[in-house]
Specification:
By secondary structure, the protein is an all-beta fold. It has no helices and 4 strands.
Length: 72
Amino acid sequence: MPTPSREGTLFWRGILPEGANECWYQEYQEGRIVVEFYTETHITAVFKTDDHNTGSPGSGVWATVPVVPPFE
């Protein structure tokens, strides 16, 4: 990640799971950075910088959904 000292906010719900997590890094043209952390079954946390944050409000409810087996 090219900008290691950016200030931002880490969002999560519940208890963060122990063990390995994957991450997905996105940098937008305005300089805003979003990093999503996830396991095989859950998005565990999202980090976003405080620069140029734009978006749309929304709401919803967390739900358990059935896991679809991989296509063979």
